[in-house]
Amino acid sequence: MIEICLNTDEFEYDVRAMVKAFYPEEFLYVQCKESKVQSQKPPGDECVKMHMNLDVKDEEIDLRLQQGEEITCEKAHTVKGDRSQRKNDLKRLLYHVFSMKTGRTLPWGTLTGIRPTKMIMKDLEDGKEPSMIMQEMKEKYLVSDEKLMEGVEIAGREREILKKLPEQDGYSLYVHIPFCPTTCLYCSFTSFSAKRWKDAMDDYVDAVIKELSVILPYDRKKKLTTVYFGGGTPTTLSSAQLRRLIQYIKEQFDLSDLLEFTVEAGRPDSITKEKLQVLKELGVTRISINPQTMKEETLHILGRNHTVNDVVNAFHLARQCGFDNINMDIILGLPMEDSKDNQMTLQEIQKLHPDNLTVHCLARKHNARLNLEKEKYKDLTFADVTEGMELSSQAAKDMGMVPYYMYRQKNIAGNQENIGYARENKFGIYNILIMEERQSILAVGAGAITKLVGKPGEFLERVENVKDVATYLERVDEMMERKKRAFESYGLI
Ligand code: SF4
Q1: What is this structure's pTM?
Q2: Which of ligand 1's atoms lies nearest the C-alpha of 304?
Q3: 183 lines ligand 1 (CB under 6 A)
Q4: Is any ligand 1 atom within 6 A of the Cβ of residue 243?
Q5: Percent of the chain with pLDDT over 70
Q6: Among 70, 280, 428, 461, which one is most buried in terms of CB atoms within 10 A?
Q7: DSSP letters of 244-260?
Q8: Mean per-residue pLDDT, 96-112
């Protein structure tokens, strides 16, 4: 545990993020002198690794760290009144101290946000030269040269793709299917057992169709650019349920401007020939078949309930059904894997020639089984992902792919990022739209979050649905009402 004592809660989020970036395994106990409500120290965790006292004033930051007998005191000067400047000064100070203590540097420096390319893209649109952007980000956020080059390349590519899209005149549709065959060890998404909810799936499809109907007046005013079925695992629905849902969208929405229709068929244990044929017949253009790893033992540890062979067979089946845009997801930093395992996974994937490869670094999420059942998994080991990142980049290049989107997550392995690679003209457009927040995404289903995006600087409004399936089925009318009110308040229908 690391005890943190702050004089103000103004920068609590940033302090937490920086400390976690250097000490991902440690529990943080934060107290704030200013706050009236003091949090309780967790019982039973008496091992305090480090105590940190931080005073952030208008013109000066004082930091005092105590680790056993060793005491470190540091000061930094800040500019009075400029919050952003003070925040960056504070983060650089923390970075400097923790980097000295741990002997580590972070590839993204002090940047802790999830969308590094959004910042770069804004600068590019303001007419800044890439070299100047890189210089500024290096000084301000201590980002490595390698990540800056990668970020500028991706932001430039995203910008070219976005230029061809109707941004605020268009919108995307997201349909959430929250069921999965089993729950993966690392999963923190809203996901319910497909087996347990089998009998309610028809009702779920009915509710989603009902909720979709509230979007129709909006659809009459905007161009539908992409449709994305995500989850969970959308292909846990039966072929008849998939047909009913997609048929409704085809009949009721104007698809004349549609550029992409993606369905995540993530788990091979949910894929059948019949389902793939329905998806193809009804105009789905892009699917995902996600191995995460091609190592049998790891699949077992993850509780994914399918084999490597299942992945290969599902992929070939999808090709036979005519899919010419298939994504495969992998995760680096999985338990009991190292870079040799990553290499083997990448070699197996290269044999299949997918059109997209999405490389994730494991993020240790609070509500994943991996954390909730810590004791059970305490002997699992996790290797560094740096080499795996390099191997993935090379494998993607060898398959003729380029990086086209990226995002970061909290507590991500190696403080790295997730990167999407694709062959030319096979980019997952929805992935760019959701990361860059340039177009409204109207989302339906349990746990789905709608984002209404206005012109730059106008508005960005989130409208959330309840996460629990039973509650969603009961309260779908209320979810529709929430959307309707949001549309009306921004004059969108
Ligand atoms: S397939 Fe995806 S959504 Fe389903 S349990 Fe695994 S990680 Fe979670």
Answers
A1: 0.92
A2: 6
A3: yes
A4: no
A5: 98
A6: 428
A7: HHHHHHHHHS--TT--E
A8: 93
Residue nearest to atom 5 of ligand 1 (CA): 183
pLDDT of 365 above 90: no
User: How far apart are alpha carbons 454 and 148 in whole angstroms?
Assistant: 28
pLDDT of residue 186: 95
Counting from 1 in the atom list of ligand 1, the atom nearest the Cα of 302 is: 6
Ligand 1 near 185 CB (within 6 A): no
Question: Comparing C-alpha atoms, which of 476, 343, 394, 420 is closest to residue 117?
Answer: 420
Query: What is the Cα 348 distance to its own chain's centre?
Result: 25
Alpha carbons 461 and 108: distance in angstroms, whole number: 28
Measured from the CB, is residue 299 less than 6 Å from ligand 1?
no
- The whole-number pLDDT of residue 46 equals 62
* Strands of 269-344, DSSP E: 286-288, 326-332
By the 8 A CB rule, do 376 and 390 touch?
A: no
Torsion over CA: 121, 127, 133, 137 (sign): negative
3-state secondary structure string across 354-377: CCEEEEEECECCCCCHHHHCCCCC
183 alpha carbon – ligand 1 mean position (Å): 6
- Which residues touch 295 (CB under 8 Å, ≥6 apart)? 308, 337, 341, 344, 345
Which residue from 183, 237, 305, 311 has its CB within 8 A of the most atoms of ligand 1, so it is best to mutate?
183
- Give, using CA atoms, the residue closest to atom 2 of ligand 1: 232
- Over residues 131-189, the pLDDT tens digits come to 999 999 999 999 999 999 999 999 999 999 999 999 889 999 999 999 999 999 999 88
Residue 440: pLDDT over 60:
yes
Query: Which residue segments constitute the domains of the chain, with CATH numbers given?
Result: 2-102 (3.30.160), 116-149 (no CATH), 165-487 (3.20.20.70)
Cα three-residue angle 273-191-198, rounded to 5 degrees? 55
pLDDT number for residue 371: 87
Query: Each residue of 31-47: pLDDT tens digit?
Result: 888 766 666 676 665 67
Q: How far is the CA of 89 from the centre of ligand 1 (A)?
A: 39
268 C-beta closer than 6 A to ligand 1: no
375: confidence class by pLDDT, cuts 50, 70, 90: confident
- Which residue has its alpha carbon closest to ligand 1 atom 7? 187
Q: Is the CB of 233 under 6 A from ligand 1?
A: yes
- Centroid of chain to Cα 451: 15
* pLDDT of amino acid 110: 95
